[in-house]
Amino acid sequence: VVSEEFLRKLPKCEHHLHIEGTLEPDLLFPLAERNGVKLPDTFPQTVQELNEKYKSFADLQDFLNYYYIGTNVLITEEDFFQLTWEYFKKISKQSVVHTEIFYDPQSHTDRGIKLATVTNGIKRACEKAEKEFGITSKIIMCLLRHIEPAKCLETIEEAKDFLVDGTITGLGLDSAEKPFPPHLFVECYERAREINKDLKLTAHAGEEGSAKYVSDSLDLLQTTRVDHGVNSIQDGELMKRLADEQIMLTVCPLSNVKLQVVSDVKELPLQKLIDNNVPFSLNSDDPAYFGGYILDNYLQVAKSFPHWDYNVWSRIAKNAINGSWCDEKRKFELL
Ligand code: HPA
Ligand code: ZN
């Protein structure tokens, strides 16, 4: 087993982190109070009760039901700045060198908040983190798959300036996977590519959905990365393609256990990915809900795969740098 010290110091890149998923109960309640947001009566009313609920989720949808309620307490640009800054303060102690942050603008614009309010708050925290911690970052806008594709197209238009000027580096797709397969969003991805041909593309796929959701994301949406993607191992052809094209899976170990995708970190097909030369990174997904930030994910994986030596871990760290959407100069600095 490699030492905890080694894992703590290992330079890390995070590629799968929903900023709304970093909303800790001890920020959620004060923000609700500050903004006069009434939480539903059925929602836990104290930090303690909420932490109790977070101990287990039945599945992705059970988690999402809580996650979207929590999101409602975020209103002002300062709220989004504060949320993001709290995340950076935590990961600044975990040797994170580069992070790519997902956000769900539709969770906010549906409540009358401007897409620019959300985006500017997150962006301001990213700039401060680069100055104060030397952590570089990119912002990835996700579309919610439970929202009508026609509505999603409107969100893309609302984000147009940010897509053109590079404030938003990539497009992603999240929320309930199985009922909303990739083919529904072909037009959205086409439109986003038309606005900026250099836009990076990813999508959640193969978390609860089958390997077909992964191959359809690649074929139909033209993504060059896959979020979760653990069900890819159901399809040998797909595995070969992921290796040949070096398509990175952004794996989230603690999330997969909490949402009952697997029963234990040990059950994740990470050895199989390594043996088949499929690149992956390790990520925290929604750390406030799943019991740990990125370092906790690294530590749990190390515990579950005790035979991995320094060479294996160095390869994982290098693959994460190579799979990042930072520019070539930054990649060179990090490698
Ligand atoms: N899957 C789908 N949607 C999400 C997730 C996830 O893991 N986290 C936040 N939104
Ligand atoms: Zn996710």
Verbal overview:
There is one protein chain. By secondary structure, this protein is α/β, with parallel strands linked by helices. It has one domain (5-328): TIM Barrel. The protein is built from 18 helices and nine strands. The protein has helices at 4-9, 25-35, 47-53, 60-71, 77-91, 105-109, 115-133, 149-158, 160-165, 186-195, 211-221, 236-244, 253-258, 270-275, 287-290, 294-304, 310-322, 328-334; strands at 12-18, 96-103, 136-144, 170-174, 200-201, 204-205, 225-228, 248-251, 280-282. The strands form two sheets. A five-stranded parallel sheet has the order 1-2-3-4-5. Strands 6-7-8-9 form a four-stranded parallel sheet. It is globular and about 50 Å long. It starts with a helix and ends with a helix. The model has no long low-confidence stretch (mean pLDDT 98). The protein binds hypoxanthine (HPA) and zinc ion.
